[in-house]
Write a structure and sequence with these properties.
It is a single chain. By secondary structure, the protein is α+β, with helices and mostly antiparallel strands. The protein has helices spanning 8-37, 43-73, 76-106, 111-131, 136-157, 160-203, 221-227, 232-236, 254-268, 310-323, 326-350, 369-375, 379-382, 396-409, 450-505, 514-548, 561-577, 596-617, 671-682; strands at 2-3, 6-7, 207-212, 215-219, 270-278, 284-296, 299-308, 354-359, 364-367, 411-420, 426-435, 441-448, 556-558, 581-586, 592-594, 623-630, 634-641, 686-692, 695-703. It has a five-stranded antiparallel beta sheet with strand order 4-3-7-6-5, with helices on both faces. The radius of gyration is 52 Å and the shape is flat. It has five domains: 2-200; 204-316, Beta-Lactamase; 332-448, PAS domain (Beta-Lactamase, 2-Layer Sandwich); 450-548; 551-703, Histidine kinase-like ATPase, C-terminal domain (Heat Shock Protein 90, 2-Layer Sandwich), CATH 3.30.565. Helix 2 packs antiparallel against helix 3 (76-106) and helix 18 (596-617) packs antiparallel against helix 19 (671-682). The protein is 58% helix and 18% strand. The model has no long low-confidence stretch (mean pLDDT 80).
Length: 707
């Protein structure tokens, strides 16, 4: 426990030392000073000062008692408060000396007496290092408040002698403070070391003994428990011969060998060994012993540490037993490894994919026949080059980065690059690289992707054509929607124009008067503004359809509600005309990566299919429901209707190309096929359909990011 950064033992030391220091500084020294200054100062000053010192004496004695009580209570707060009070009284005691010096100086007493008082103060401060030096704060307060005012008094008197004394006092203050600090540090460290030793001695789980003249002098509780004794006295008084069997496992007598190891430890300073003991209950006890020669309080001793290793010895015995069958097991393991090696070689040389072993610089160490056939290089030629050297120039930097990732992460999968063949041609390969367990080589598995990539590109081209074909197939429906949405604003424009013409023909306005001209102007402005509004509506309709046919080159981060809103701008009038109600419930808050127009095409396909089905089946109270919500991996969009659903026999076929439930004239069979391709291939999502609540439900799942 520490209080104000001071060890309790240091606090105990000052609580005891302060009694002697107080007697000297607050009784004896003031009495000498009183005699010295009698008949030189007014009695009222002199005796007041003397009684103040006596009062301080009793306060310091009381504080010492309070501090000792606080130490017994182990209350940190009480100890701290007592120390703070001690610091105050110490400084006050020092100031008392300073005050008598200044009183003497002010009353111009004899120089010799002032010097004698200064000597008394110096003597008190010099002696204080032994009484309060264990707490450096108390000491520095005492010497500072005693010496610094004394220096001031000497300078006040002035003169060469007193200036010299002031300088000497300053040097004394500095040197004595440094010496006291060093002494304090030594005391603090010694106390801390004793505490540490005591803690180790009493609390360690290892047994500790102190040996003097080949006898146990002291021990800790751990060794008492280790040997099964009930008390320290019982352990220390036990016959040493009974602590060990007569003979050690190596055949030597225990008594003679013990004397030998004690002698070695004494002469060399340290010695460690293992020893077989006998507990008080006659059980055997294996220990690991370390003996060290130490000097404790001026006394030469052997410091011994006993550690119970019985469990370790038991484990060693079991291990020795296991080692008897080790050779047989090793032989079996070697045989098994040999079989696995042969299996690896068989796989390595017969695999269809190219397999190679590289060093950490990508130099070839081994390559199978498939890799040699793939590149056109034979085994000897590959060993003279590296994988990086077989890479086209504009991919070298990326290949080196991949190699570094393998060294950092231990693997890299699906790295595609263009490889240079021996004949100078190029092939596209996909590689998986794994850092081998020895951390010195890399396993590389390569596959020629040239043909597969060509087919993939052809499929992408074909899919683009199908996508365009699908959009063209929707063109007729789009034109019908445009005509439908234009019908109302065109009719309104025509009606407004006829209205204006009638007004002119019937001369409805008195153009001969200012009021008539103003009325006519206002009326025509309003009608022309209406026409502008209708034209703007027509333009917006055209823009919506034109934007729909613009291809998306880059996916954008957006909420799924945006493409839904844009789709409804295109088809809403057509749905309203057929009395189809729309119910929407959107709880999604996420934004996902989308090709906006492609998703609109999917939505338009689903809405149009539902509308056509409603018309075909003449469904009353037709309704399309839409719900969106967040998932752990992205979002989900569900669209379902009440149009009777899809025959379960053909439900699995609706996403096949050129499959349609409509007549040949009205359906191409590409709408849902292209919708599934857009969601799953372009967005890495899922599009599925199932019958639900008297209708069909399309479920679209989209991830947070497009991989």
């Amino acid at each position: 426990m520490k209080t104000l950064n001071y060890n309790v033992k240091l606090v105990e030391s000052i609580s005891k030392g302060v009694r002697l220091g107080t007697l000297t500084s607050n009784l004896i020294a003031p009495s000498v000073t009183l005699i010295l200054l009698s008949n030189t100062l007014p009695n009222v000053y002199l005796f007041s000062w003397y009684f103040i010192n006596i009062f301080i004496y009793f306060l310091r004695i009381n504080n010492s008692n309070t501090l000792q009580e606080a130490l017994l209570s182990k209350s940190k707060k009480r100890i701290s408060n007592s120390l703070y009070y001690l610091f105050f009284l110490t400084a006050l005691s020092a100031l008392a000396y300073s005050s008598i010096v200044w009183i003497s100086v002010i009353h111009n007493i004899a120089i010799t007496k002032i010097l004698l008082i200064a000597i008394i103060i110096i003597t008190m401060t010099a002696g204080s290092i032994s009484t309060i030096g264990s707490i450096y704060t108390a000491f520095i307060l005492y010497i500072s408040f005693a010496i610094i005012p004394l220096i001031g008094a000497m300078l006040y008197v002035s003169g060469e002698l007193f200036n010299l004394i002031s300088f000497i006092l300053l040097i004394y203050l500095i040197v004595h403070s440094i010496s006291a600090y060093r002494l304090f540090i030594n005391q603090r460290d010694a106390t801390s070391l004793q505490d540490s030793f005591k803690t180790i001695f009493t609390q360690t789980s290892d047994g500790i003994v102190l040996v003097k003249n080949n006898r146990f002098k002291d021990c800790n509780d751990s060794i008492i428990k280790m040997f099964g004794f009930n008390s320290k006295e019982e352990f220390l008084n036990y016959d040493l011969k009974k602590f060990s069997p007569i003979y050690q496992p190596d055949g030597s007598k225990s008594k003679r060998k013990m004397l030998e190891v004690l002698k070695i430890a004494w002469n060399e300073g340290n010695y460690g060994y293992q020893w077989l003991h006998t507990k008080i209950n006659k059980e055997e006890l294996w220990t690991d012993i370390n003996l060290t020669r130490i000097n404790l309080n001026g006394e030469e001793l052997i410091y011994g540490i006993w550690r119970d290793i019985s469990d370790r010895k038991e484990a060693e015995a079991k291990l020795e037993k296991l080692n008897n069958t080790l050779e047989r097991r090793v032989s079996e393991q070697i045989l098994e490894v040999t079989k696995k090696t042969e299996l690896f070689e068989a796989i390595f040389h017969t695999a269809k994919d190219g397999i190679a072993i590289l060093d950490l610089e990508s130099n070839f160490l081994l390559a199978n026949k498939a890799y040699q056939d793939m590149t056109g290089y034979d085994e000897r030629e590959l060993y003279q080059t590296s994988c990086i050297n077989l890479t086209i120039s504009n991919m070298v930097t990326r290949s080196k980065e991949v190699l570094q990732k393998v060294l950092e992460d231990g693997y890299f999968n699906d790295y595609e690059k263009i490889c240079i063949l021996k004949n100078g041609k190029h092939i596209e390969i996909k590689m998986n690289l794994v850092l081998m367990p020895d951390k010195k080589s890399i396993l590389m598995i390569s596959k020629d992707m040239t043909t597969e990539n060509i087919l993939k590109k052809e499929k992408q081209t074909h899919d683009k054509k199908l996508l365009q074909h699908s959009k063209l197939a929707q063109m007729g429906e789009m034109i019908s929607m445009i005509a439908h949405q234009w019908r109302q604003p065109l009719g309104a424009i025509s009606s407004t124009a006829v209205n204006l013409k009638i007004k002119l023909e019937f001369e409805s306005f008195d153009l001969s008067s200012k009021d008539g001209i103003k009325e006519a102007t206002t009326y025509f402005d309003e009608r022309l503004s209406d026409i502008e509004s209708f034209v703007a509506n027509l333009t917006t309709t055209i823009d919506d359809f034109r934007n729909f046919y613009k291809p998306n080159k880059v996916a954008e981060l957006t909420n799924i509600k945006q493409p839904i809103l844009k789709t409804f701008k295109i088809i809403e009038n057509s749905l309203t005309t057929d009395n189809i109600s729309i119910v929407q419930e959107h709880s999604t808050t996420k934004e996902v990566m989308l090709f906006d127009n492609e998703v609109m095409q999917v939505l338009l396909n689903i809405f149009k299919n539902a509308q056509d089905n409603f018309r075909l089946k003449k469904v009353l109270d037709a309704k399309i429901s839409i719900r969106s919500y967040d998932t752990t991996k992205g979002i989900c969009l569900e669209i379902w209707d009440n149009g009777g659903g899809i025959d379960k026999d053909i439900l699995d076929k609706i996403f096949e190309p050129y499959f349609s439930t409509k007549t040949e004239k009205n359906g191409t069979g590409l709408g849902l096929y292209m919708s599934k391709m857009i969601i799953e291939e372009h967005h890495n999502g899922n599009l599925n359909a199932k019958n639900k609540n008297g209708g069909v439900c399309f479920k679209i799942e989209l991830p947070d990011r497009i991989i």
